[in-house]
Amino acid sequence: MNNITSVSNTASRIDSLRELIRYHDYKYYVEASPEISDYEYDQLMHELLQLEDEHPELIREDSPCRRVSGQPLEEFTSVPHAMPMLSLDNTYSYDDLRAFDNRVRKGLGQKGQEEVEYVVELKIDGVGASLIYRQGIFQQGLTRGDGLMGDDITLNLQTIHSIPLRLNEPVDIEVRGEVYMSLKGFEGFNDSRIAQKEPPFANPRNAAAGSLHLLNPASVAKRPLSIFVHSLGYVPDWTILTHDDTFNRLQELGFAINPYRKLLVGIDRVIEYCQECEQLRTCLGYEIDGTVVKVNSLKFQKQLGSTNRSPRWAVAYKFTAQQATTFLRDIIVQVGRTGALTPVAIVEPVEIAGAKISRATLHNEDEIKRKDIRINDRIIIERSGDVIPKVIGVLPSADERNTPFVFPTACPECGAAVVKPDGEARSFCTGVNCPAQRQRRIEYFASRGCMNIEGMGTSVVKQLLEQGLIEDILSIYTLKDSSDKLERLGSLDGWGDKSVQNLLANIEKSKARPFDRLINALGIPQVGSKMSTILAEYFGSLENIRQAANEELLSIPDIGPKTALCITAFFSQEQTRTLLAALDALGISKGNFSIEADVIESKFSGKEFVITGTLPNLSRAEAAEIIQKLGGKTSDHVSKKTSALIVGKEPGSKLEKAQRLGIQIITAEEFAKLMVSENN
Q1: What CATH number matches the domain at 438-585, 3.30.590.20, 3.30.750.24, 1.10.150.20, 3.40.50.300?
Q2: Terminal CA-CA length for the chain
């Protein structure tokens, strides 16, 4: 009996702690009026964690501890929206707003001076998300995706403290909102990334979007994300009649609602409030890029309906991007992690919307030529999206101008040739050992679709580079020859003799990867896995590819002028020749092992397959590789050319399209049997 009483008391204490933490979460993250110190809050959370660890049978779905307990994901699942998650049409002038009002009144059959009731809200510059609750418990969260299908990011969303895991009432409801990062949080977050020698994000919106697509919820939990809920999704029973009353109801349920909104009658009042909101943007503490104007009556919203992409009852009014004039002092060219060259304007510092601007993007070589931008010109700077400054034009001057800027033909980081494929706006460095691209190239080389060196993911590559244990692709294979480096590696956090030996074994194993994988691993611009297979089958060795003339490449089906130019430019570089010679010495640059994609006569030969959903014990990349081995091709899109659709668990819209076109459907089980029969 005492034991029963003890468990009962524990359950009661756990319930009490959950309620307390929920209350203080709401006060801190939604109302911004905390009632206890961080230390006191941490003590409550620590006690709850300890009690739940001791009594796992008492853990509930809505426990605050679930915010940080999700396991890392392998990938996100695509899920259909119960009701399309549409985007908004944009307007950029008050005339546009009046035209919107005219369309609304016409759609409602209103005439003369009769005015419509609107709700005007701030347009938060964040990332759209859908939150689904069953009986008041948070069940699922989705991205907008294409409006019809979104990624399931439930585990990431439940780490955001302003998203309630349990509502104040047990209702079934779907709401939509905007996930954002405050300016203060963004600044601190970027500071921490810089301190850890990681690249900072360009703006709060990018930081929020990148955070929501991390595969490890524990990492998302460390990022300062918040949400404002702004509308309903699919709700089975909703008796409220207006959008404004909807906000009040959502607030009662415990959702975070932006306080800056107004119920207004007539478009003139709407325009006045839009002007007021534009003055707010510099003192809010988070980014906005406009307002959203919505018809207040839910009955009228239903009557007006929607187009395929946007509702007819709502519109976004985008603020004018803020501008200033200054002088262009220099143009530098930066090399990104993918090898893309981006020109950057160094300008006389100028303040725009409260921020001191000393740099601005020039986008690419074509933009500089089109706008005829030259050093020492007087220029107009605009904060595009109110965050990223860009040069939008040159002001006329009586002074003599400098000569036109000449875009580099050699990489400013490594000296390798720069290529600009026909039809491309960007130029690319072709150097395999370019310092700016080093980490990205090594990560790609070691990735599953290339040399598949297990255990050499992003964090390990970054660690090895920072510790000076590798310098380039070649040094991956010479790591085993340095006892000093191996000793240092084994002494690092997370490493030991066994993990070092496993890494070395996986590196050694990669030497026997198929030839097409090696070509793909080199990261040749315009050359992916399919093109790598074509080159491997045709040439048989890297040396043969290196010696191939442009004309010979163009004679091969599927190789066009852009790809041929990139291949010849890549193999003509001294850096490439040096790497190939070193790989040759290690016995991994020749075509002396068979291509795994040996084509055999099979049910796959000459056919095109599309894969949708999750296959058991097999990634899509691995399935595509098997199909190619058996002589087939893969595509990302269903079309009349598709021979069959391979369907795994939770298929997307591709299944419906394939059924509509009468395309053969192969289940995951049938695909597994086909593989077995073809390999016997």
Answers
A1: 1.10.150.20
A2: 65
